[in-house]
Design a protein that fits this description.
InterPro entries: ADH-like_N, ER, GroES-like_sf, NAD(P)-bd_dom_sf, Quin_OxRdtase/zeta-crystal_CS. It is an enzyme of class 1 (oxidoreductase). Keywords: NADP, Oxidoreductase. This is NADP-dependent oxidoreductase. The chain is of the alpha/beta class. The chain folds into 2 domains: about 160 residues, Alpha-Beta Complex (Quinone Oxidoreductase, Chain A, domain 1); about 130 residues, Rossmann fold. It contains 11 helices and 15 strands. The strands form 3 sheets. Strands 3, 4, 5, 6, 7, 14 and 15 form a 7-stranded mixed beta sheet that branches. Helix 5 links the parallel strand 8 and strand 9. Helix 1 packs across helix 2, helix 1 packs across helix 11 and helix 4 crosses helix 5. The radius of gyration is 19 Å and the shape is globular. The chain starts with a strand and ends in an 8-residue tail after the last strand. The model has no long low-confidence stretch (mean pLDDT about 95). The structure holds NADP nicotinamide-adenine-dinucleotide phosphate. NADP nicotinamide-adenine-dinucleotide phosphate binds next to helix 1, helix 4 and helix 5.
Length: about 325
């Protein structure tokens, strides 16, 4: 068994393949043979030593990144009766500190895993963290209701392209900020209005909306405060700039909330149902072998990924 680990924070080259042993699942746990792991910006930020998870992990290296995974249940711990050996499952695991999904094998709480049924392992690995962030950002923190208007910054990214679909499915009217190259893609997913964030006039083009889902943070998040209608709110998702945007909002009397995504198998099951029924789709724009994890990190750090990136484990067959 192999895993991709870091022994020090740094650029993508600090990721290195190391051997690992299969562990025995404890009470309530299962061992999963991972086929695909999802790549998220937090994996790369933590690898670089940035953010809360890095601060918490700095004295606990080596660290194996990865929170999103899909694979096959290989062993059951005592007391597990919700899953059986051979089930295909996905889940968000080890969040926010332990990680561990950039590996061929992992121990996970059975209660956090959801059977894939007819959804593919690739889709299952791409969905959890981004899908849950979009869902919780829109409906729990954002309190988005049918018929309301929402602006999604970074609509074409991992979280954004799912947020567009969850918002549309709830009956909201969706405006997105994205490069022109992504406008056709996002229109196809249900976005009604498409605005190019390179246009210096983008705030005026958007006008006022009831909810802003800020997936960019920093100056873009601050600028988007001008798009919040009276009584509306802005949810800022990148944690590193959340405090600054909350402060800017409070100075102007605009409600700004930050968030940290939480594992939620019930919500994950609902999203898998939407995929199974063909009512939503996940765009997977890149797949890398586990050994090429550094290339995947360089790509996600480029900041212009469309949809999701995956890591493929050595044992995953190409048609899974
Ligand atoms: N707090 C939490 O719990 C939590 C959870 C998940 C994610 N996050 C954070 O949320 C952010 C988004 O995550 P993600 O996975 O969706 O990232 P991602 O997939 O890497 O996002 C890439 C997208 O960002 C777009 N983009 C880049 N600069 C932009 C700008 N100035 N304005 C508008 N769009 C821009 C790009 O679109 P173009 O190609 O069109 O430029 C690209 O499609 C990240 O910072 C991540 O760390 C936080």
């Amino acid at each position: 068994m192999t895993q991709l680990q870091i022994t020090a924070f740094g650029d993508p080259s600090v990721l290195s393949l190391t051997p690992s042993q299969d562990k025995v699942p404890a009470e309530g746990e299962v061992r999963v043979r991972i086929c695909y792991a999802g790549v998220n910006p937090i994996d790369a930020k933590t690898r670089a030593g940035l953010g809360w998870a890095a601060a918490q992990n700095k004295d606990k290296l080596p660290w194996t990144p990865g929170y999103d995974m899909a694979g096959v249940v290989a062993a059951l711990g005592p007391g597990v009766d919700s899953l059986k050996v051979g089930d295909k499952v996905c889940g968000m695991v080890g969040f926010p500190l332990e990680g561990g999904a950039y590996a061929e094998s992992i121990l996970a709480q059975a209660a956090l895993l959801v059977p894939l049924e007819e959804v593919s392992l690739k889709q299952g690995a791409a969905l959890p963290l981004a899908g849950l962030t979009a869902w919780q950002g829109l409906f729990e923190h954002g309190e988005l209701k049918q018929g309301q208007s929402v602006l999604i910054l970074a609509g074409a990214g991992g979280v954004g392209h799912l947020a567009v679909q969850w918002a549309r499915a709830s009956g909201a009217r969706v405006t997105v900020l994205a490069s022109p190259d992504n406008h056709g893609f996002l229109h196809g997913l249900g976005a009604e209005r498409l605005v190019d964030y390179h246009d210096p006039d983008w705030v005026a083009q958007v006008g006022r909306v009831e909810l802003v889902l800020d997936l960019v943070g920093g100056d873009s998040g601050k600028a988007a405060l001008d798009c919040v209608a009276e009584g509306g709110r802005l949810i800022t998702v990148p944690t590193i700039t959340a405090e600054a945007i909350k402060l800017a909002g409070s100075e102007r009397g605009i409600e700004v909330r930050g968030m940290l995504v939480q594992p939620n198998p019930g919500q994950l099951a609902q999203m898998l149902t939407l995929l199974r029924l063909g009512e939503a789709q996940i765009c997977i724009s890149g797949e890398f072998d586990l050994a090429d994890g550094a290339l995947a990190h360089a790509a996600i750090e480029g900041g212009h990924t469309r949809g999701k990136l995956l890591l493929r484990m050595p044992g995953a067959s190409l048609d899974e």
